[in-house]
Amino acid sequence: MIRPQNFRPPTSNPSSYFSRQATLVGQQPDIFAEQLVFWTIALVPLWWILGLQLVVYPVVGWYLFYRSLQRPNQVSVPFGWQMWCVYIGVWIISLLVNLAIGTAEVGRSITAFGSITGVWMLTVALWYAMRRLSIRHRVIVRAICVVGLCQLVAVILGEAYLTATGSIPQTHSLLVTLIPSIPSKIFFDAALYGRETLVWDADPIPRLKSFYYWSPLAGTMSIFICSAAMAERQRFWQIAALLGGLATVWLAAARAAQVGIVLAIIVSLWFGSKWGRKLLIACAIPVGLLSPIIISELYKYFFEYRKDSAAGRLALYEETYKAFLNSPLIGFGAQGRSNVLADIPLGSHSQLYSTLYQTGIIGCAVLAVAWLAIAWAIFQLVRKQPMLSPVLGAWIGLTLVMPGGELAAASVTVFAIAAWLGCAWNQVEQATIKRNLPWLLNTPLPELPTPWEIWQRWFSGSQPYSKDRHLTYMRMAKHEKKDPVRRLRWGSRDR
Questions:
Q1: DSSP state letters, 172-218
Q2: Which parts pass through the membrane (predicted)?
Q3: How many CB atoms lie within 10 A of CB 109?
Q4: Torsions phi, psi of 405, nearest 5?
């Protein structure tokens, strides 16, 4: 049996020592789970071209939740996530009631239930899984940055093809190629670009969708990518992710996401460091002087550019609100049929109106409390560790997108943000343990390799990593309650 290097347990109260040591061992990440979550996020382009994006994230997320239940360490669920679960319960009750009385269609109810389990329940389940599996914060940040680099490559290749040929590249997923008539094709295809009509009766123009179902979703993911770039340690990944996110959100013409990125970066700088605040204060003067021009251009961009699309949205929102008044308390449980825009469901294209229509005032109030409580909890994390300010920026950016977007079917973005939030809690908890147990600095646990380090070692032909010391500490944690004195003797053995 191998003795850990520099192992010097205290001679008094050995049971207490090993109990605290076991606590720290419980914070060690599940290596397999960490690799799984990293590659699930980083390989977004692979799932996109295979046509499996809609399936991969819920399946992996629920598996990670199941795997986390096998871990002995317990974690508490903050008030915000508890209210999130209450909202899910309200939605399910509304769905069942409306199915019973016949006001909700069966097909749309099945779709709503898919959103509940594959998006809303997945969010809190994955957050909880990240906590119990002790996934490291920098692993998720790097995974999101890898997606940013992939988006940058897609922009370069796509725009080069568009410039050279004058037409958008025609890409299709493997699944759609094998099954061309698959239902809900938009969720399984791999179209890099779409075509958008700016004005009625005008020719449509190319609009980037990147690796996602539609352009606004590419904008939302780009908010997370630019925020992750602010948290990344290595310069290459910082620049690559930031360029990939900014280029994608611009070519996707996702206006709310563009503002969300600016706001996310401002929040990251303001709460992240003193120099960030100084930079923002210095920029406030020229921005203030140019504010009349900026406001004028923003008005044109938001209210005149694609104004017919905006008019269609407003008409849909108005019809949704009028329908909501017919069932204001619990809503209709699922989306309805619009008389104004036949191809667009009633209660869609806005999380605000979607929540009102499907769950009524009760659901809307509960979700608002949950959303604000989570934001407050993230803010408390940032106060303890300013380096987590990009997480707060990402959540605020997502909040800004929600009035014109929704979480339904957005399993890609939900997986990324839920995993990141869980790891932010882990970061604060691990730092707190190390700060409260300074004596452990003399006997630190081995730093386990990250998923990309494991891949690099495998690719180079060397052993991925040595488990000896890690298993030694795990055995210590497992047996310390049975015989702490014997553990002391074992720790003093020679190799």
A1: --HHHHH-TT-SSGGGT---SEEEE-SSTTSPPEEEE-TTSSSHHHH
A2: 36-64, 84-104, 110-128, 140-162, 212-231, 237-267, 279-299, 356-379, 391-421
A3: 18
A4: -140, 180
| Global confidence as pTM | 0.84
Give the chain's length.
495
For 471-482, write each residue's pLDDT tens digit. Answer: 444 444 444 444
Helix (H, G, I), strand (E, B) or coil at 337: strand
DSSP state of 331: -
Q: How far is CA 155 from CA 158, 244, 249, 274, 327, in A?
A: 5, 8, 11, 34, 45
Token pair 């929040």: residue = 267
Backbone torsions φ then ψ of 205, nearest 5 degrees = -115, 155
Could you list the residue range(s) of the whole structural domain that residue 207 is in? Answer: 28-271+307-434
206: in domain = yes
Q: Is residue 321 part of a domain?
A: yes
Query: Is position 449 within any domain?
Result: no
**Count of domains observed in the chain:** 1
Average pLDDT score over the chain: 82
8 A C-beta contact, residue 229 and residue 66: no
Q: Which residues contact 483 (CB under 8 A, 6 or more apart)?
A: none
Tokens of 388: 């987590």
- Position 366 in a domain: yes
pLDDT digits (tens, 9 = 90+) for 156-207: 999 999 999 888 888 889 999 999 888 888 888 888 988 776 544 456 778 8
